[in-house]
Amino acid sequence: MSVFDDMIRGVRANGSLFGSTTLSPPWALQFVDGAPLTLCTVLGGAGWIVVDEHPPALLRPYDTIVVRGPATFTFVDEVGTAAEPVLCGEDCATPDQGGTRHRLGWSDAGDGAGATTLIVGAYPVRGEISRRLLDALPVILRVDAGGTGDPVLDHLAAEVALDVPGQQVVLDRLLDWMLVCTLRAWFDRPGGEPPGWWAAQRDPVVGDALRMLHADPAAPWTIAVLADRARVSRSTLAKRFADLVGEPPLSYLTRWRMTLAADLLAQRGDATVAEVARAVGYADPFGFSAAFKRVRGVNPSEYRRAVSP
User: Fold this and answer.
1) Domains of the chain
2) What pLDDT shows up at residue 163?
3) Which parts of the chain span the membrane according to its record (predicted)?
């Protein structure tokens, strides 16, 4: 289990807003819901993503932009367009209906000369685990055409044109694939500054340590055990881990355990604090509560009350 695998597992297109539309200028689509993550890509034509307090971003065929909520944005044929914005949110699709909602509430404005075909997937993000991924992203990230996501877009274009059983499931999975390709390309871009854990995954020593911690976070890890399994000295592991990740291994483990515990407290209302403590590697619920408050600022019971519906 890699760090990225863990963090993205709660970001799934199941239950997402999905739309595909072909627009003839002038046009403007205003996305008003501020979804945690919204992926926008153009199959043909061009348009501009406009987010308040950020420079407009041009999308050409197969370019992809991801917008991180709660920012809302507009997709327009040109900056300063005279078109009246069409509001896209619950009128386009409602995430609680489950699955994708292809063209629900959207209408084709034309497919003549100069038309633009847009695909949008808006992702719900569940839990504190995936919030750590969001924290590593800017409000707008862009990946140009020509990367590993292009074949996915070919599949999306073909699937959108169909009307067959199972289409929603296929579109969901293709959107997941597209998001993963986009984020990987953005993290690996030349001159980029990805989060420490991204680059650390490829280090032969620290990468192994991270995979062990994420594979079994409740294990009784010590620096000595991690170093022995990584086949390096304790001092080498501690220094390389801190240099690449930005904190010592056991500090990282504690924060990760508290992230897991936060999701368990929110999602398993019938679990006692002691049960949650054991699930993340603490035999003593008092020690767990102290660690949770130190990391999260409140004790486990207070956190559960705060996030309960």
Assistant:
1) 3-187 (2.60.120.280), 199-307 (1.10.10.60)
2) 73
3) none
